[in-house]
Amino acid sequence: MKNDNRIKLLNGKRVALLATVITLLMACGKYFIGMYYDSEVLIADAMHSFADTAAIMLSAFGLHLAGMPKNNRFPYGLYKAETIALLFVGLFISYAGIDLFIEGYKSVTSPFHAANLQHVPMLTAFASIVISIFIAAIELKTSKEVKSLSLEANAKESFMDIITSIIVLAGIVLPSYNVPYVEGIVIILISLIVFKIGAGNTIHSIMVLLDADTNKAMRSDIEYCINTIRGIKAVNQIKVRETGPFKMVEIEIVTSPSATVFAIDRLSDEIRNTIIKNFDNIEGIFIDVKPAKNEIYRAVIPVLDNNGLESRVFSHFGKSKYFIIIRINEGRIEIEDFYLNEFLDKPKHIGLNVIKSIAHYNIDLLFTMEIGEISFHILRDNLIEIYKIPEGKITVKTVAEQFLNGDLEKITQPTHSSDEEITK
User: Fold this and answer.
1) Residue range 248-280, pLDDT digits in tens
2) Fold of the domain spanning 3-209
């Protein structure tokens, strides 16, 4: 685990523990004051706060386990402990919603009796509102920083506590003004919202524990990013698996069957760096590289003129006036583009400049008669295969047909040194 991820988990754990202590003290205060003043509304709110305390403690415990280092028994870490905690958080919140609904139903169906205003319970309910606002704000802010689902669930529940405390305050004050049933009706509405949040977190945690696909948008974004990397011919599959506050990414790509081990390692490193740069909280990236089969090739050929597939091939790559890019697919040969050699007026490094230029066009093949050392290695590192053009007058169509028939010789090493290339 990276150090910054460990620090984030530590901060999340501290906030969860702080919220636990504050909520527990607040629940105890409401319970004892409610018992002393015989305030059933305040006692019910205290029981709700005790349920919140248990949920927050589970969240803190989950973050603690998720922050523990990997070992031989748990080589993949304990990240899913946070998801398990989220499951229990969701169940507790759901229970709190059901409990609120029952209290609201009792309030609505019970005979109304006017009561005297109790100042201490009223002030206690008001203090509960202020404390709930503080807890909700700090939990929500920290949950966004550490990407903790259980802490975010607690933050949402704390926001519900604010509304519940307002209802409790109304339940203490309004009866003294002979206003009936308001408390019970609103509590029933709040209970439905609380239950929805709890059920949603419970279902999500179960889906995560079952490794269900919960990141479709992220998969599409990752595929878009890595498809811009040269050398990747196709992306067969992308899997994103949540594991606590982090995500594991599994990718299967297709590349040239002749790619070297060095080229594959470079390609894999580029994929990892791209994903880490563009996405947060990625803990592991697993890349499976497959050789391409039944490929669609994009090839570049140096030519003397612009006459479509009948363009005459030029033997000297660097000094060619034009370059044609063709697409070879299941025996079909199509022209994709035509380029003017903009480096002909350069005094040296012409071929090298051309190579650097075409490497950006996601080319698979280069047909030429000769290639220098530096250009050869640049092409190889970009997974571009090089085939030798036969001597004599020959057209683009003929070269492509010879490639399809397997008649062209593959160039596996430079035809001349880098010093010779510089002078050309």
Assistant:
1) 899 998 887 767 777 788 888 989 999 988 887
2) Alpha-lytic protease prodomain-like (1.20.1510)
